[in-house]
Amino acid sequence: MSPRARLWLLFASLAIGTTAVLAVALWLGGADAWLLAPALLLIVTAQALVWLHLDRRWVQPATALAREIWLLLHARAERAMAPLGAHGLGRLPDAVSALVRRWRASQDDQDAAIGRAMARTAEEQSRLEALLRDLSDGVIACSIDRRILLFNDAALRILAAPIELGLDRPLDRLLAREPIIQASELLRERHGARSDADPALREEFVCATADGARLLRCRMALIVGQDRAIGGFILDFVDPTERHGRIERQAEEIAGQVEALRRDLRRTTGDQAAGGGVA
Which of the residues 102, 216, 222, 251 could staple to 237 if both were Cys, CB 3.0 to 4.6 A apart? Predict the structure, then answer.
């Protein structure tokens, strides 16, 4: 029930009660009691006038002010508060208008700060992605519950799992769960034993892929915030067999180049020797 309806019921109850009391007085008082009828009419009229005055000066302006506050707080565009006309609220509407303006200014400052922070975050993320693209080692950043936040192209190449490797997907679908948990717990214990954040705090281990087909040499580091709260971890890894194969291919290429150089030298020496015999 609205305040205006409650006020109307209050005055209506007073008017009904007054009428009932005077009616009983007329019924018990006889003919002389009818002289109280003008007083009854005067009291009821006074109550009605008081109700109209309160409704016009306070109830209606207060209801309009509440509606304006709601509109100001939820308006998409900036708007001024509509005038309330004659009212008995004193300086309350001006105070509310000033409060809404200050709140709106603080909201604008907060939105601007959030926009700047998001722009810095996007810039740092782009810079990080550019750095990760140049790495030959696979890199995966995960949340504390081992869900993937970021990865580079080398991780996609080494793991050869384009379906399972994706943002917000579980790392357990790619790598064995137990070595990851064990390394994370060891790093947390070492981090908790220190009074400061050590950026060189790392744990090296060997981990199999989820299907057990390959072994990867891994290194884990924690993601630590300014309040020393752990937000996740970064895992970089290499496939020793892939690196060994790459070294073998490079060695074969170098051996081929050396052999070609030897053939060129033998050919050059033979030509020089033939030229000397003719002379």
Answer: 216
Q: Please list the residues that pair with 215 across neighbouring strands.
A: 208
Cα 124 from Cα 138, distance rounded (Å): 19
Exposed, middle or buried: residue 207 (CB in 10 Å: 0-12, 13-18, 19+)?
buried
Q: Give phi and psi for 199, each to the nearest 5.
A: -65, -15
pLDDT tens digit sequence for 4-55 = 566 556 666 666 766 666 666 666 655 555 566 676 667 767 767 776 777 7
CA 228 to chain centre: 20
Distance CA 207, CA 203 (A): 12
Nearest to 230 by CA among 187, 167, 172: 187
8 A C-beta contact, residue 37 and residue 62: no
What confidence score (pLDDT) does residue 279 get?
46
Sheet holding 148-151, edge to edge: 148-151, 138-143, 230-238, 215-224, 202-208
Question: What is the rounded distance in angstroms from the CA atom of residue 152 to the CA atom of residue 125?
Answer: 12
In three-state secondary structure terms, 90 is: coil
Q: What span, in angstroms and rounded, lies between the C-alpha atoms of 17 and 11?
A: 10
* Closest to 36 in 3D by CA, of 44, 16, 49: 44
DSSP state, residue 33:
G
**Of 58, 53, 55, 26, nearest to 39 (Cα)?**
26
C-alpha torsion angle, residues 175, 177, 180, 185 (rounded to 10) = 170
What's the CA gap between 103 and 75, in Å, rounded?
A: 13
